[in-house]
Write a structure and sequence with these properties.
Layout: H1 2-16, H2 25-42, H3 48-58, H4 72-87, H5 92-97, H6 99-109
Helix pairs in contact: 1-2, 1-4, 2-4, 3-6
């Protein structure tokens, strides 16, 4: 499946020393954990809203899943939750509850390599 492809890409890039796969041993291990987590999402090992809540909480003080730049972990997770977010009737309340996930997901879908249809979220009004 798609996540097996990410695992294969991760291994091939890691062997070449690609920073997309982590800059140090700890980051590489975290990336592999997130790829495995994306398998659990695809296999529906628990309700998808619980995965979304966990990812939202994890991203509360992070921009990316691992490190300070996108990695293959970000791509694997974004692709794994794409169908869920696309099928969800996103209200402003849900968007608020998952604000970290929405922020991160918008960042992922703005990349040049994004291959899924974009999901439109509510724009936050600016208050002065």
């Amino acid at each position: 499946g798609i996540n097996a492809e990410y695992g294969k890409q991760w291994y091939q890039r890691r062997v070449r020393g690609d920073p997309y796969c982590g800059l140090n041993t700890e980051d590489k291990a975290k990336i592999m954990q997130w790829i495995q987590y994306s398998y659990r999402i695809q296999e529906k090992k628990m309700p998808i809203d619980r995965f979304a809540e966990e990812i939202n909480n994890y991203l509360s003080n992070r921009t990316f899943m691992v490190g300070s730049c996108p990695s293959i972990a970000d791509v694997a997770i974004a692709h794994s939750i794409n169908r869920y977010l696309g099928s969800l009737h996103i209200t402003p309340e849900i968007q608020w509850e998952l604000s970290n996930l929405v922020r991160w997901y918008n960042l992922m879908q703005s990349s040049k390599s994004w291959s899924y249809p974009n999901i439109e979220f509510f724009k936050r009004p600016f208050y002065f």
